[in-house]
Amino acid sequence: MKHDIVIIGAGPAGLAAACQAYDSGVKDIVILEREPHLGGILNQCIHNGFGLKRFGQSLTGPEYAQRYIDMVLERGIKVYTETTVLSLTDNKVITAISPTEGLFYIEAKAVILAMGCRERSRGALNIPGTRPAGVYSAGTAQKYVNIFGRMPGKEVVILGSGDIGLIMARRMTVEGARVHAVAEIMPHSSGLKRNIVQCLDDFDIPLYLNHTITKIEGKDRVEGVVISQVDQNKKPILGTEKHFKCDTVLFSVGLIPENELTKKAGVTLDRATRGAVVDQTRETSISGVFACGNVLQVHDLVDYVSEESAIAGRFAAEYVLNGKRDKQTVKLSAGENVSYVLPQQIDKGLDGNVKLFFRVTKTLNNCTIRGLSGEKEVFAIKKRVVVPGEMETVILPKEKIELIDGGLTVTICD
Amino acid sequence: MFDVVVIGGGVVGACILRTLTRYDLKVCLVEKQADVSMGASRANSGVVHAGYDAMPGTLKAKFNVEGNRLMPVWAKELNVKYKNNGSLVVAFCDEDLETLHDLKARGEKNGVPGLEIISKERLFELEPNICKTAVGALYAPTGGIVCPYGLTVAAIGNAMDNGAGLLTNFEVASVDRTADGFTLISTNGQTVQARLVINAAGYNAGRVASAFGDDTVKIGGRKGEYILLDRESEGFVTRTLFCTPSKKGKGVLVLPTVDGNILLGPTATEVSDEDTTTTKDGLEEIITKAKTVCDNIPLYNAITSFSGIRAYSDRHDFIIEESAFIKGLINVAGIESPGLTSAPAIAEYVVNQLIARHFELKENKNYSPYREKDSFFMGLCDEDKNTLIKKNPQFGRIVCRCEQITEGEIVRAIHQNPPATTVDGVKRRLRAGMGRCQGGFCQPYITQILARELNKDLTEIEKSGLKSNLIVGDTK
Ligand SMILES: Cc1cc2nc3c(=O)[nH]c(=O)nc-3n(C[C@H](O)[C@H](O)[C@H](O)COP(=O)(O)OP(=O)(O)OC[C@H]3O[C@@H](n4cnc5c(N)ncnc54)[C@H](O)[C@@H]3O)c2cc1C
After folding, report:
1. Residue A124: band (very low, low, confident or very high) from pLDDT cuts 50, 70, 90
2. Which superfamily is assigned to B84-145+220-313 in CATH?
3. What is the mean pLDDT of chain B?
């Protein structure tokens, strides 16, 4: 099989990339999706708050997804569901498998990676204790509740105040469970402010900042947990233990881009984002392979995923139509108080502004975001407040890009 | 009435059961848990020891060296992951180096082939991530690694294919003597009759022996905790690295698993019950000690921690003998490390020496030593994959994305010997849910498949047996 553009993943990223690639002039596009339905993780996000930026209204996850599914179907883009991609090679040959098609190969002119992310598991935290039933990542619990209509537990403690954890605190409560506590090891939540208010405060669920779970109890099923306060080095402080009786522990301790295929294909990854290194077109180190959405960087809002994926879709189409571009790339890097900057490279040969995405490592008030090229200040923007839980953006106009010489470092200082 | 009943579905019981089925005997294994391989055989280092550690003349030494020789054969027949990766005992000072010479001499006495003391240059060539303070090592080329629960499951499965019975959720609570043997009575009131009984109950072997009236088997427990790193770290070390034992203690191992993960541990803490809780102190100790073996350990790749209990006897050697008090009861107890390595050799000895005293061993003409792998699909060629998917589309549906396990394989594991009836049972057979997402994505689907195949409601599906249900009810 041969196709112009193959998109791996039919979540919001893959769907948006497909539409934009089509509208940019390439019609031979296929989307491969391992689940039976299109829409990705949005299908289990039945709460609302999606689409405020993109559509100017508050939609549920499935509603947001449906808008893009409709756009994909209207364009007659071919989708393969229940199809898992097993491998991708550096010359863009994809091996996939499905119950109806069997094992098959696709040679693609361009590939868009849109596989999304996975949740960090309990094991990654090395929390001592037993390994009983009743310990779930928040997303797994969400699937049981929202897709299967079944309750994974009744008395709940949540570790991590990421958005999925906050959403599940409310969801479990609404379904009749009791959420006793949300513990967060950092001095701040990594979730959106609006979720803290709407999911915890409105339901009187206590949030323990600077706290972590130090023990899980119960032989067969969870029977309780111990949470402790932590010091500046994130070490539990003896004597601060609080015990909760519960039958369920949910973990919402971070998302990790799913880049196993990417890595095996030989694409260069960024250690900070755990996604591919890309330029402003979202092209990776392998020419003709693009990446967008949460497989590239973990976004706060699906609206940004759609925006980013349109970029990847557009340039994947240009790649198919015009072939490989000569690039004059400059490197971007994260400086003081910045954990990463994306894109990691800018091709100065391209026209147009570039929107930079980045995250800060701590909360800062009345600060200045600076872009430095060597000693030279390329831009400086004042901000009232920046927080680690929310992605920051800066638009870099073409004339500023021209000023970059060698590389650009983004810093934030008081 | 069975000729022989084996108590305990660990690796020792499993290997004995398999060896029994080579002969025309009616045999059965009883296991207290919902699945086999839930004791020490689930959580250990998985090292196939070369045999330089045990004192010459002990049963440990004898069965270790013999087991090391048998392991590749067993692994091949049973399609269990095994690798002859070699092991290194690393020295960090001159005193250590002296100990290495003692170990080498001891190993040679035990009959371990190929032992060699190597220079630090050669050591760094073999394992570049070892701490630069290392001064040399003892290299044992016959050292290996094996999947411990894989071996246990496969040996029992193969035995069942050859006619053996398996009763899970059967905890031997008491025993009645009968005219020609014993009646074993479980905690939930089931009974099984046997002419001869093998007590391979691991940590519980003392209690089981007492139920027969033999109070001489005394078992203590020593917990070992581990940290497991993702396969992303594959290649960090390729051989099994031990620290030289010294007055300061044993240190921890840094080693690869047969699946390409990196394993750090174990600790050693005396325990008085079978509690496999991991502890903060234990996990910290592993990290501290592992850092004295290797530099730059990719700890950020940790995916899980676990622990197992070593069951040691007060003789500090294996007990493998017919009870002096109860005729027809064979105790195979105190099988601590190197028990996994020794299990095939112990089985040969128990069946061909001890059981042979009670039965005339006639060959089972239908015996086949082979068993197919549980996760076999990705190993097929493309053409075979497609033929199979055409026949059964479930093989085209990937359920566990991290380990690339198909629905077809899961369904097969639920129905084949020994049947997987729990989520962890599926995991141990197929690695489904053992990868980097630790079941985050596939657990709901595996639960659903189990419910469908076993004709149960989702609320009845358990993680690992007993009361470990995953779902407690419906949403509103
Ligand atoms: C931390 C650790 C590290 C180790 N590392 C290694 C190594 O690297 N290499 C090596 O060779 N060896 C190693 N060992 C040793 C090895 O794991 C054991 O020797 C081996 O697993 C023992 O097997 P078993 O069948 O005797 O015991 P188990 O696996 O514990 O099996 C006993 C079984 O009996 C069942 N049972 C108990 N009571 C009853 C009852 N009343 N009725 C019915 N069933 C019952 C239990 O549920 C259990 O399934 C290690 C052990 C530990 C704990």
Report:
1. low
2. D-Amino Acid Oxidase, subunit A, domain 2 (3.30.9.10)
3. 96
Q: Side-chain half-sphere of A348: how many Cα atoms within 13 Å? A: 15
Supply φ then ψ for residue B147, to 5 degrees.
Answer: -85, 110
Closest residue on chain B to A138 (Cα): B440
What is the DSSP annotation of B154-168?
HHHHHHHHTT-EEE-
Radius of gyration of chain A (CA): 22
pLDDT of B250: 81
pLDDT exceeds cutoff 90 at B465: no
Q: Is B42 helix (H, G, I), strand (E, B) or coil?
A: coil
**How far, in Å, CA of B181 to CA of B196, rounded?**
6
Structure-token match 């093998």, residue found: B198
Ordered DSSP codes for B310-324: EEEETTSS-EEEE-S
Q: Is the ipTM of this complex over 0.90?
A: yes
Q: What is the pLDDT of residues B409-425, one digit of tens each?
A: 999 999 999 999 999 99
Structure tokens at A109: 């002119």
pLDDT, one tens digit per residue, over A256-271 is 999 999 999 999 999 9
pTM as predicted: 0.92
Which phi and psi (to 5°) does residue A322 adopt? Answer: -115, -5
Provide the CA B157 distance to its chain's centre, in angstroms.
Answer: 14
Question: Is the CB of residue A41 less than 8 Å from the CB of residue A68?
Answer: no
Whether the pLDDT of residue A384 is over 80: the answer is yes
**pLDDT at position B190 over 70:** yes
If you measure CA to CA, which chain A residue comes closest to B438? Answer: A121
**Dihedral sign for Cα atoms in the order B46, B49, B53, B56:** positive
Which of A81, A215, A219, A222 has the highest number of chain B CBs within 10 A, making it the mutation to test binding with B?
Answer: A219
pLDDT band per the 50, 70, 90 thresholds, residue B433 = confident
Q: How many residues does chain A have?
A: 414
The minimal CB distance from B437 to the residues A101, A121, A247 is found for A121
Q: Would the CB of B30 count as within 6 Å of ligand 1?
A: yes
CATH fit for domain B2-41+149-218+315-357, picks 1.10.10.10, 3.50.50.60, 3.30.930.10, 3.30.420.240: 3.50.50.60
Q: Comparing C-alpha atoms, which of A148, A92, A81, A66 is closest to residue A320?
A: A92
Cβ burial, residue A393 (10 Å; 0-12/13-18/19+): exposed
Q: What sign results for the dihedral spanned by CA atoms B331, B336, B341, B342?
A: negative
